[in-house]
Amino acid sequence: MTIQLRDYQTEAVNAVADAWADGTDRPAVVLPTGTGKTVIFSELARREREQGGRTLVLAHRDELIGQAVAKLAAVDPGAKIGVVKAERNEVDAPIVVASVPSLIRQSRREALGHFSAGIVDEAHHATARTYRTVMDGLSIPWAGFTATMARGDGSKLGDVWSKIVYEADIISMIRRGFLVDPKGIRIKVPHLDLSGVRRTGGDYNEADLGEALTESFAPEVVADAYIEHAAGRPALLFAPTVETAQLFHQHMIDKGVRSAVVWGAMPLADRRAALADFDAGKIDVLCNCMVLTEGYDSPRAEVCIIARPTQSKPLYVQMVGRVLRPYPGKTGALVLDVVGVTGRMALCSLTTLVGKEDEAKDGQSLLEAVAEDEEAREAIAEQLYTGPTEAAEVDLFGNSRQTWLRTRAGFWFLQAGERFIALVPLADGSFNVGWWSKSGYAKGADRGGWIAQNVPDLGYAMAHGESNVTMAEQVITAKERQWRKRKPSEKQNGYARSLGFTPLPEMRSGEVSDLISVGLASERLDAKLTRWLG
Fold it and tell me: Hey, CA dihedral for 467, 469, 472, 474, is it positive or negative?
């Protein structure tokens, strides 16, 4: 069982394949963080393998190599995937993931053998000399994938990538439910004066910025703002230097917030332990010195604290993108922007994500800010045009996606007709995905089975589960949506009570139905899966 691609992912795969066929050697795909760029290039690699070709995937950090290998395997379980970095030299595989530094030497590149295609993850790095040495040294077509086809230092990505062949904006992904809608709040810090901070590479100098933050009340103000606006919600805090990251962390601790801090030079085992604690819900705020801006996937993160004011749109997009991934039970995201006396240059803010110059009001979501502009344009249009108009309903909140619920024992599950599809967390952080009939009296193959095993992260596990829902089961779910907003019947409330729940008076039929599903799934799955995990 492989992951079923979303429609836009299939369109992106086909766009790259068509570009290569037409002789465009370096096409690029631009998609928001969290929308599955790895799934797309994994599908490209799978197609190359099926046609007898080989694919080379470039990553710029060792940690990203492991992630790429795991996700390639999730999309193409039958593939042999090699790794080339440091002492590892698995060059015979049809798909090879390599670190850029390992391929700088010509002798190492020559040892790879022939490839039919190359992939560059985080393609905005490709203007660097190291990337260009590797790419120019291998005469193969390349495809680049990135969330932003721009760099803060002004480097021209057009010198590397010949054409953007597929692009989707963040608003369309939010409206379709593939990303969550963020709200923004500005944290105004007294005495934070950025007017004297030097600029390096198109943005604030990190050392100067760190000093300005340290000399202000930023650490105390940020801790108080988190407690006021987001207490208990999983948050990522971005700081410009190790010292400021540690300072923010200490003030969080002093305020009673469960916090941890990570940075680039930190021992790898310690960093992995802190990230695992955050994923497990043992930590609420993860302070970092710019090590989580790329390649870090923790869908449960829903608050982004930008304690590193920036004028770089690419950097801002990367930071905010870390908290926009959907997660069961997650209804939105919050961005806390640290601001002070900025001088003449405006800071990036939430509306930077969509190229809007006016800032969103505090507490206003990105969709609301965009809708405000759309209403203004419509008002102007109405003054200019008096002809007939058409009204159309737009699904702004992506209700086409299936709803994941959680059993009493904490297992995520999806109701699919007469089945439950459940995620089983393993000790190494991966997941098994399986299905079980609603009735425990089913026999043999009708009772259940595994859909996928050892899936590397929650997002991919969810994708495997959703891909297993049949068309008939989707129709049942669609029919159910018609009554979810109605008032529940007394019979429905009574059934929920029989399962140990107390429906509230304001609950609608869909909410009571979810309580019933949780009760039935708990009875069917909890004891079985708990024993299996042993």
Answer: negative
